[in-house]
Amino acid sequence: MQDDLSSLVVALSKSGDFEDAAARTLSAMMGLTERTIAASKYAGRAKVLRSMVHLRPAGGYVKLAILEQGATAVQSAGSTGQRGAPSLVSATAWRSVVQHGSPVFVDVTLGALKPYLPQLPDKAEEPLPGSFTSQESRQSFLSRQASHVCVIPLRALGAGIGGMISLEADSPTAMGQDFIWRECIDRLQTIAEVAAPYLTGLPFRPAPHAEVDEYLPVVGKSMANLLPILNVFSQQEESVLISGPTGAGKSRLARWVHSRSSRRKGPFEVLELLAVPEELQMAELFGWKKGAFTGAVKDSLGSIGRAEGGTLFIDEIDKLSLKAQAGLLRVLEERSYRVLGDGAGDRGADVRFIIGTNVDLREAVRAGRFREDLYYRINVLPLRVPSLDERQDEIPLWAHYMVTRRHKEQFPQGQAQLSPEAEQVLSGRAWPGNLRQLDNIIRRAYTLALVEHGPSAELTLSSGHVSRALEYEGATGQAESKAAASIPTALIAAAQAFIAEAKRRGTPLDLGLTEALVGIVLGQAVQQMGREEAFRALGRENLLKNRNHHKVLKRELEKVEALYKELGEGPSPFAALLAENEAA
Ligand SMILES: Nc1ncnc2c1ncn2[C@@H]1O[C@H](COP(=O)(O)OP(=O)(O)OP(=O)(O)O)[C@@H](O)[C@H]1O
Q1: CB of 163 closer than 6 A to ligand 1?
Q2: Is 389-505 in CATH node 1.10.8.60?
Q3: Helix H segments across 15-152?
Q4: For a designed S-S bond to 305, which of 5, 99, 135, 301 qualifies (C-beta 3.0 to 4.6 A apart)?
Q5: pLDDT, tens digit, for every residue of 468-492?
Q6: Distance 263 CA to ligand 1 centre (A)
Q7: How much is the CA Rg of the chain, to the nearest whole Å?
Q8: Which homologous superfamily is 2-201 in?
Q9: Ligand 1 atom nearest to 316, measured from its CA
Q10: Which regions of the chain are under pLDDT 50?
């Protein structure tokens, strides 16, 4: 073992990317498992099928690597040519790994799951309450011949559990027994510990060029990395949890998942919880029979009923009342529900759920607003959609797509484009409202261009059109949103606000007034850190040494006052500091 471990360490230290490190780690683990089988009573009657690295730090999956028996390289998740639906891992297994920080053994045939807790031997013998998992996970494993699964936590150095490694084996004669996991678990864990810093720290291999389609017409670098994972998710029956900021495209991605699933011919239903008052949530979800409550004048299908045979996307799940959460949990666990006022009993739900959220559900669980069991039940296949600001490379592509789409509605044969300057303006600002906000701006800029040029099959949106569309947004809102953005982005936003004001006034707004920026930064720093610390932090210690800092602060703050005066905005937030400085 020592030799194997040393050669693994050498190999890992030469690995250039996650995929290579994953292949080496998984093949070392599968090799060890095979040797353990060969030396056990299951020799010749059991085989190792595959293993997987699931990198899923808080927020969602970022990488999934699968090594099939006999292969030397990991499969890129979701690649075509995979047989059947690749099984991932059950919600209960992940929950146990997170809660106990220890491995878990799953007997798929029995549907039993045991945490490996040698320090608490009694507990280790008890299957986890609630036992194994949903029917979906079980079926998924069984369809891949996996009868026994071992799941090992993956810890990044100094961090919590950021993922897991799962090993699947086929050993029908070991039904109801622990299989060989106990014999090799310590060594498997050692391999996982040695490999964890490489698996969590190495860069990913660049994703192959992603195919775009009507549901996802633009794919930049970060989405290209996520799509293979989402593709695997789409082939599962388990619930998918899509989190991400509002307007980032979660509902479109849900549709994308549906369009790639085996349910694509079935309906795709959306339940926007934000639009449903709490007291109507149960009715909206489950439907009602005539007379079930005041106002129920005829039978009505709920979202679950309408999504029968297809997919239901429930957006803003954190808005679900605790009562409706209990109802949804039951549907997810038992695949049945009761229509309100239906005396005929429960009906089955053949529905795949995709859940959307723009809040951190763990926080909602901690605050007691969201059921923990429901959280784990929907958190089997989580994925976080990055904000548009994290997908900078997509901004011009989306803008182009949105302009073209709009123009084709008017002129099917026409051509519309954005000037390079217009693209720069769009790329240079922050998008707190994400794709929805970008779409709104493009719509306005397009209208402005039409107004200026008249209806025309050939149309170019200039930076002027885009800037004017942005002006409608209001400079204050922008400035606030910029605070969290990168410095260049924030500065460009400030420049846009300045230019917009210059254009609005009709009288010149002298460029020299922008020099007030130095005073704003300095004044802000002095207010936050105190005089001396501020001058040091901003690289002006020399001014402290020759006692010139009062003078410089005065000069710069006066420029700020001049700017405020010119804008008719009254005293600046640094007026008191200026007076105090004068007195000093
Ligand atoms: N794939 C897409 N194709 C075209 N437009 C898109 C796409 N994705 C997002 N958009 C644009 O962004 C807007 C917001 O997208 P979507 O409703 O999917 O976001 P969301 O993350 O679900 O938002 P919310 O959380 O507020 O519901 C859409 O109305 C559309 O203008």
Answers
A1: no
A2: yes
A3: 18-38, 91-100, 121-125, 135-143
A4: 301
A5: 888 876 543 444 444 445 677 778 7
A6: 22
A7: 29
A8: GAF domain (3.30.450.40)
A9: 25
A10: 78-85, 124-125, 129-131, 475-484
